[in-house]
Design goal:
The structure holds two protein chains of two kinds. Chain A is built from eleven helices and no strands. Chain A has helices at 3-43, 49-53, 67-97, 101-116, 119-134, 139-163, 167-175, 180-208, 212-215, 235-243, 248-276. In chain A, helix 3 (67-97) packs antiparallel against helix 8 and helix 5 packs across helix 6. The chains are: A mainly alpha, B alpha/beta.
């Protein structure tokens, strides 16, 4: 082969490779665009004032909304944060600032395994540990299961952002005669605060859309929930039960619910972007 | 410093109420008032100090006395244990999990490794400035200076403001930052950041100041500012400085210790170390034949 032909062939290969990888990159974001398009098309028509303010109507009546499910999702996320944030952040602090490297290796491995556990398994575990002893589905059980899912997620991100804090800050603080716990709470955590908040938000975004564990715990409710020991509605649950229903009106509302849930999660993700925007700018 | 500022720093209030019950009657508790100090009494007596990191024997049987209100320079090639020695003086080397030590280090007569002495207390008496300036990025200039006081429970606004100004004046930084004390500390230049770190260390009113190559990351102008600062500070403080710069050691120090592979090869007056060392290895090193 002449040098020239060789050169042309190499250029072809390069162009081919570029095209293939570009198509794969498009494939990655195509589902996102499709999801947004479909949800907007099918859901936007049913997103109205009633949707945010009214309770679901009984079968056969049209109209009504998902107010209880929207509020329920926020209540569940609040409860989950009360469980997941303290435990996750403190665990991350332990991994990063204390602990022996061998023990930490095991804890880290355990957290990674937990992050891979299917969420329905979490639901079954909390069903056995909370729902059965309490003799009923409850808001509390729903909050606990989402909180438990958050713990290993928050723990790992907290550890990672604490590790990014240069050791010089810890040394400078300790050399001033500042005790280690004060160094950690006032210097290290303050330096990494944005990253920790980011980790918490990402974990919230992840559990906000969980459905399977809630089937075993929060169960869903057609009305307002007034006690932690009562079942509670949540957007993903409501979407699930409406989407598999035979009623046209309910299925329209399921689309609207999906759209609202996606917007909620997107909002969380966008705030993460805003928070992290200048994290590495010095 | 202008004569005016100098006066201010000279008339600092008494620096240190003794923080450890002193077994020593002659403790120079107030470095700022010149009267009762015995120039002969060493600030730090290091006796048969050995430091190990795991199975690595990094300091071998080091004994030396560090004079009060003088500058002691530690020189030697990289990896000879200079920094470890410095860190052993305020128990910072203990942060390394595998570290062990034996021997004794007495700070104005007080054994700093005694079982009832907490490292936190030792570090308040023996401050430290690092090679890389490390002001806290989340804090303003003012907050950086007072952080050591605030996090040790001093909350009175007047006290904090007063100490902040004193410390910044002593670190020769006051005039450059007095109009922007609320600005973020990382907005300062490299040399200013290092002087801010010195001010931060001075604010907790230590008796001894350890400096680990404080000027090695700075340009010549900033370096000379740090050096004149050291000459100023030694009137009140005992200073131990690790340096790779032989001229710097010669310019600022009274005594010089030469370390080589974990051993203290020679220790004596700086003039003698640099002009007529008694050890061949010292002579080779200070004349640049190795290291």
């Amino acid at each position: 082969m002449s040098t020239r032909a060789h050169h042309t062939w190499r250029k072809c290969k390069n162009a081919l490779m570029q095209t293939v990888t570009f198509c794969c990159a498009l494939l990655v974001i195509a589902p996102l665009l499709l999801i947004f398009y479909t949800l907007l098309k099918s859901g936007i028509g049913s997103v109205n004032w009633d949707f945010f303010t009214k309770l679901p109507k009984p079968v056969g009546e049209s109209g009504g909304g998902m107010a209880n499910a929207i509020v329920g999702t926020f209540i569940l996320l609040g409860l989950a944060s009360m469980v997941g944030v303290p435990a996750g952040v403190c665990g991350g602090i332990y991994l990063s600032e204390y602990g022996s490297s061998r023990l930490n290796g095991w804890i880290r491995f355990g957290a990674d395994v937990l992050n891979g556990v299917p969420s329905i398994i979490w639901g079954m575990v909390v069903y056995a540990l909370v729902v059965l002893p309490m003799k009923g589905f409850s808001t509390l059980a729903g909050g606990i299961v989402l909180g438990l899912i958050m713990i290993p997620l928050i723990m790992r991100t907290t550890e990672e952002v604490l590790q990014l804090v240069p050791n010089g800050y810890r040394e400078a603080s300790l050399a001033l005669g500042i005790a280690q716990w004060r160094t950690i709470t006032q210097i290290v955590i303050r330096t990494a605060l944005k990253g920790i908040v980011t980790g918490i938000l990402l974990a919230l975004a992840r559990v906000a859309g969980e459905t399977a564990p809630l089937l075993f715990t929060a169960f869903g409710n057609r009305f307002w929930t007034h006690h932690l020991s009562d079942p509670i509605a949540a957007l993903p649950l409501q979407i699930f039960s409406y989407a598999i229903s035979p009623y046209e009106d309910w299925r329209r509302q399921a689309w609207a619910g999906a759209l609202v849930l996606l917007l909620l999660i997107t909002t969380i993700n966008v705030s993460v972007r805003v928070l992290t925007r200048d994290r590495f700018r010095k | 410093m202008t004569p005016d500022q100098e006066k201010q720093s000279r008339t600092m209030p008494p620096a240190n109420p003794p923080r450890i019950a002193p077994p020593r009657p002659e403790q120079p508790a107030q470095p700022a008032t010149a009267a009762p100090v015995h120039q002969d009494m060493p600030a730090i007596c290091v006796d048969h100090l050995n430091v190990y990191f795991g199975s690595n024997h990094v300091l071998k049987n080091v004994s030396l006395n560090i004079r009060a209100r003088a500058v002691t320079a530690i020189i030697g090639p990289s990896g000879c244990g200079k920094s470890t020695f410095l860190r052993a003086l305020n128990r910072m080397h203990e942060l390394i999990p595998e570290a062990r030590m034996d021997g004794t280090i007495r700070l104005f007569g007080q054994e700093i490794y005694a079982p009832d002495v907490e490292p936190v207390i030792v570090r308040r008496r023996v401050g430290m400035v690092f090679q890389k300036s490390n002001p806290f990025p989340t804090m303003s200039i003012a907050d950086n200076v007072t952080v050591g006081l605030r996090l040790n429970g001093i909350r009175k606004h007047g006290v904090l403001a007063e100490r902040m100004e004193q410390s910044l004046r002593m670190a020769a930084l006051w005039d450059e930052v007095k109009d922007r004390l609320r600005a973020p500390a990382i907005s300062l230049s490299g040399g200013q950041q290092q002087r801010l770190c010195i001010a931060r260390a001075l604010a907790v009113q230590p008796e001894v100041l350890l400096m680990d190559e404080p000027a090695s990351a700075l340009d010549p102008l900033a370096t000379s500012k740090i050096e004149s600062l050291i000459l100023e500070l030694k009137k009140d403080y005992t200073i131990v400085i690790v340096t790779h710069n032989m001229q710097q050691a010669a310019r600022v120090s009274e005594d010089t210790a030469f370390f080589y592979i974990g051993e203290l090869v020679e220790f004596g007056p700086t003039a003698k170390i640099f002009t007529s060392p008694s050890q061949k290895r010292t002579e080779d090193y200070v004349t640049g034949r190795f290291g």
